[in-house]
Amino acid sequence: MLLSKSCIYGLRASLYLASKKTDDFTPIRKMSDDLEISFHFLTKILQQLTADNVLESFKGPNGGVRLKRSGDEITFMDIVMAIDGPALFTECALGLPGCGVEKPCPFHEQWAETRDNIKVMMEGTTITELAIKGKDENLRLTAKGGFEKFLYNE
User: Fold this and answer.
1) What is the pLDDT of residues 37-55, one digit of tens each?
2) What is the pTM (predicted TM-score) of this model?
3) Distance CA 137, CA 88 (A)
4) Rounded to 5 degrees, what angle do the CA atoms 136, 140, 142 make?
């Protein structure tokens, strides 16, 4: 798996928020239940996204989280960098220290090309694009279902 479980959940939470019709704060408990993610684990992930200015939070009875900027301005890469950092794009696929053009591993050339393509894709894809595609095609956002269950619970 290229991305950590935290990063995958952060992407799912961001898509969930981008699919909302309003920019109201969404309670973390509701999001945790809807996305079938542990409340405490999701809270830690959302704290990372808040610290990196992807989300903003509001405490209190009507509190929760929401996107800090428009989903059109938040890329897949923004979420990955906030949670997993640049390791995917800087480290050797085989975990060898010092791997590079001068001292490549057997997989270096193939991985470098694939890694660069993944980076371009992540930088060029916004969470709004993914949320629209998910809604339009009712793609899965959880193990049990797609975006349709979130559209009617706003």
Assistant:
1) 999 999 999 999 999 999 9
2) 0.90
3) 29
4) 140
